[in-house]
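Teaching note: in complex prediction, the entire set of molecules is handled at once rather than each chain in isolation. The prompt given to students was simply: 'Predict the structure of this complex.' The entities are:
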Amino acid sequence: MNKIILIILGMTLVTYIPRLLPFFIVSSSKLPKKVNRFLKLIPYTALGALIIPGAFTAVPQMPLAAVFGAGFALVYSWLRGGIIVPVFGSVLIVFFMLLIR
Amino acid sequence: MEFQSHKYSQFKSGITAGIPIMVGYLPIAIAFGMLAKTTGITMLQSFMFSAFVYAGASQFMALNMIAVGVGAGEIILATLLVNFRHFLMSASLAAKIKEDIKKYVPFIAFGNTDEVFSIISLKDEEPTKVFMLTLELAAYTSWVGGTVLGYFVGEMLPSVIGDSMPIALYAMFIAILTPEVKKSIKVAVLVILSGALNTLLGYLNALPSGWNMIAAILISSTIGVYFFLKEDEVDE
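The expected output is the structure of the full assembly:
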């Protein structure tokens, strides 16, 4: 078999199995309270680790642009909420900062 | 009729929630398609990478490793390590979903990326299967479509456009998380703790790639169970 195809199939399996397996192991009805609480904290801690430090290095050519873009998203969503405006706003900020660099 | 219109509104809200993900995925997928081409991978194989593997960071890593001649076994093992964080996310999602999704589990699990997971988990209403599947299909379309687009027309795009787009996904993560942080100082502490651990572990560079994030999630969530949220809002 072609090496690239083998890599793709192998990667597909090792990516899909960890995504799939928990749905057969975990069911919300019969979990101990502490396990349930642990699982419910994962969205927050996962987002913490996804944002920090990645957001600050999202624009390697100009780290300050990433800080301003992420900062805008934080301030806007704090004051007004929503997702679309923070997303497009931060992209525009980075875009213009890269243009005038 | 009532039932139909409920489904339709769930479909619409899936599309709306999918827009920021599509915006964030598209340029990254285009970059992947371009890079795959320069690595010497065929159009069909590039498509298969995005359509089957469907995991951004590990796809770029694989291209890199293919380019320097690393063996298939090593690439697959590295992928397992990098993508294992989704095990935790799927476990969390499985505990959250109350609706009977049996038939759709293979699809919902396949589409459970960082971004989709974040949106579904921190949504105010119960996630329905129509919402989840629509959201996932929107994200998937953008990723696979962007890859093909990048393969064919990637080099025609001015680089400043591609360079300014990756912030979109981070902005989305921030926008999803901020309302939760506002509601609870304990959540804020936990988020910062997890990010600090991830940063520290990255700096120490002792774990295989991908496991800094897993360790940060495991440690901070465990601390959260015992110290921060004794009988708190997360228990419902």
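Point out the following to students. The mean pLDDT of chain A is 93. The radius of gyration of chain A is 20 Å.
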